[in-house]
Amino acid sequence: MMYMSKIGKEDTQFLKIKKDSAEKLLKLIKTKLSDESIVDKRKKVIHSGVYVLFPIVKNEKKVNNLIECIGNELNFEIINAKGKIDPNHKYRSLEEALVGELPEDIIDLIPKSYDVIGKIAITEFDRFNSLSVDKTSIYKKKVAEAIVKVNKMVETVYEKKSEVKGKYRLKELRPIFGVDNPETFHKENHCIFKLDVKNTYFTPRLVFERNRLSLLKFAKNELIVDMFAGVGPISIQIARNNDVKIYSFDINPAAHKYLIENVNLNKLKGQILAYNIDVVNLIKSSNELGINLKNRVDRTIMNLPEQSINYIDIACFLTKKTGGIIHLYQFCEKPNPIEKGIKNLRNQLNRMGWHIEEIINSKIVKPFSPKSDLIVVDVKIKYIM
Ligand SMILES: C[S@@+](CC[C@H](N)C(=O)[O-])C[C@H]1O[C@@H](n2cnc3c(N)ncnc32)[C@H](O)[C@@H]1O
Predict the structure, then answer these.
(1) Which residue is closest in CA terms to ligand 1's atom 11?
(2) Domain total of the chain
(3) Residue 177, domain member (yes or no)
(4) Residue from 199, 248, 262, 304 whose mutation best tests the ligand 1 pocket (most atoms within 8 A of CB)
(5) Which residues of the chain have pLDDT under 50?
């Protein structure tokens, strides 16, 4: 078996093989090579007489590995010729979209993940910190272009420049591709949400958790409080599936504005009453809404993970003394984050004269940092004094 390598001026490297061996070649690439990315799927395969030309990546290490692994089993040539990008090619990963666009060692440093919210993508480059500033901005642009290639809906890419912070839970974002327009429509679990990624909190990473909540068993006309509702993804998904009444609170005027729009955008079985307030006000003796809701609520959702435990007094103030459910989200340190979360909750409740009657469910929702996880506990609580 033999192969030949011709160096030419053309832009693409091809593996030229007889048509009747093509199938065997693709099988061998699959079974013998640990990395199938030798084939440059962005470019068109060329058929020429009895030959077929597979475009391959211009990467010496990968090509040598290919020759080593299958050079003895098939006759083929590595040639250079004019290649054509396939306009219908669907990029499946950033790595694939970045072949030939970035040096190999830089591809190892590209973001491992990014969020897509409607027509907006948000990413961060924590592993680019060691690179020079001028190179970094070129590489970031390439990564942003690759995100757009992989996600045809995306029109704008933002770089996350800060952690989520402040009472509205916002992050600083800098545009690195497209028009700086932070407003978008996002679809999730058959609902639609209008939101502004700069001025409201929203994460698509809770898609499964919100679905879980919305599919729980709710009593007809159940009275629910969503204490930290944001643009309404939890309230709206619950009210879409269930005939319940939800009071949805948020301190951020922008989140409240979108929450109202989102209530109107979605077809709901239940009713949502939105208020732009700090929930602390509910326990003030003069607060009419607080007086109206006091010890009447069946279920309270507390999705402000870094602080929700500090609002347990408000949940107790609202919950029916005979018993109600709390869904409490917390960031808790590893190891045993769930045990820690339940202990925190138990201590706070006991201080208020309440106790946990039943732990309905507890789980890690997602990792948050190297040291902590986002957890949720669904508990039935009851007044004991
Ligand atoms: C982590 S976000 C959760 C938003 C929403 N539940 C979701 O799943 O997207 C927390 C929200 O609580 C709001 N918030 C923070 N402190 C509050 C308070 N004291 N009263 C009412 N809302 C508050 C913030 O403005 C933010 O929108």
Answers:
(1) 228
(2) 3
(3) yes
(4) 304
(5) 1-9
| Distance in Å, CA 203 to ligand 1 centroid | 12
Query: In terms of Cα–Cα distance, which of 232, 222, 231 is closest to 298?
Result: 222
* Distance in angstroms (rounded) separating the CA atoms of residues 167 and 170: 8
Residue that finishes a domain, picked among 115, 147, 181? 181
In angstroms, the CA 203 to CA 150 distance is 20
Which CATH number fits the domain that encloses residue 265?
3.40.50.150
Q: Does the Cβ of 234 fall within 6 Å of ligand 1?
A: yes
Closest CA to 38 of 55, 22, 53, 25: 55
Indicate whether residue 232 lines ligand 1 (CB < 6 A).
no
Tell me the C-alpha distance between 144 and 122, whole Å: 9
Could you tell me if 77 and 98 lie in one domain?
A: no
* 186 assigned to some structural domain: no
d(CA 202, CA 253) in angstroms, rounded, equals 15
Which DSSP symbol is given to 115?
A: E
Q: Please state the pTM of the whole predicted model.
A: 0.87
- The answer to whether the CB of 251 is under 6 A from ligand 1 is yes
Each residue of 77-96: b (16+ CB within 10 Å) or e? ebbbbebeeeeeeebeebeb
CA distance 56 to 68: 15
